[in-house]
Amino acid sequence: MTYLIIGLILFLATHSARIFAEEGRAQLIAERGLLKYKIAYSIVSVIGLVLIVWGYGLARYDPVYIWFPPIWTKHLAALLTLPAFILLVATYAPPSKIKALVGHPMAAGVKLWALSHLIANGTLADVLLFGSFLVWSIAAFSSARRRDRAQGVAPVQGKLLNDGIVLVAGGVLWFIFARHLHAMLFGIAPFG
Hints:
Helices cover 79% and strands 0% of the residues. The chain is mainly α and 192 residues long. The mean pLDDT is 93. The chain crosses the membrane at residues 37-59, 71-93, 113-139, 160-177. Pfam families: NnrU (PF07298).
């Protein structure tokens, strides 16, 4: 569990700079330069992610059960991850009405992903992993929306065609991941 916790601290701390230390982040970029900041940010994030994956994998060998979720929660989780994938695609796709409506689709997608996995899994490692990401995504979404309001940022209204692309691409990615990659990567088949 130690590796999981250290990984979560490293990964979420780097991704929380804009939430809790916007001025410190700006000062560090001004002093060291954007490129050096991004390199350090990336290195710490990758180390954190590796530790999360490793620690979570180790925790699965000796699980500490907090609750035993009913089987229907696994089906609900599979369905909730569909809009999470759509929001993920909306983050990187050309401007869409979905992105304009949500404002920060990555944080919203992480919220759905974390919530869906939290309700469908009942071990201590699951609570630590998905609970941490849920709390972080709520804080990140709230902080980003507050920052937008303070800076007068208005969402770019996208084209309806881009929404179609986002919906189709998100649905296809979700299907491929749920049907094939999830079992291969994590040993659990959402539809199996």
